[in-house]
């Protein structure tokens, strides 16, 4: 599984995604869970997918850790996936919906927002 995020110039930006990776890996110990980025950080998605394939992985799930279906999810990611499929036809690739499009994720964020009303100021 690759958690796919945008990337940023500041290395600290990746910290929440690294924690998310660790949480997912702890829940699925038999699954290789890693991060890959669209730009500005390494590894990029094509690099990470090639590394996994070299390790013998044949089934890959890509989870876009984006809140919405902007241009990166609607245009850039499909182009990258199409290229990966062309370059590595032996790799079965599944792409999940963007995290922010999932009802359970939105509910968890809403719970967090409502909970912030109860926090002391």
TrEMBL record:
Keyword Lyase listed: yes
Domain of life: Bacteria
Gene3D superfamilies: 3.40.50.1400
Coiled-coil region: none
Keyword Metal-binding among record annotations: yes
Keywords: Lyase, Metal-binding
InterPro entries in the record: CbiX-like, Sirohydro_Cobaltochel/CbiX
The protein's name in its UniProt record: Cobalamin biosynthesis protein CbiX
């Amino acid at each position: 599984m690759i958690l796919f995020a945008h990337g940023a110039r500041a290395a600290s930006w990746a910290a929440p995604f690294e924690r998310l990776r660790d949480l997912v890996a702890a829940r699925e110990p038999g699954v290789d869970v890693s991060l890959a980025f669209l730009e500005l950080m390494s590894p990029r998605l094509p690099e990470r997918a090639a590394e996994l394939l070299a390790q013998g992985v044949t089934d890959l799930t890509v989870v876009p850790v984006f809140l919405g279906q902007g241009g990166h999810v609607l245009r850039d990611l499909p182009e990258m996936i199409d290229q990966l499929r062309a370059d590595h036809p032996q790799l079965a690739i599944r792409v999940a919906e963007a995290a922010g499009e999932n009802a359970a994720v939105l509910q968890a964020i809403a719970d967090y927002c409502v909970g912030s009303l109860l926090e002391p100021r």
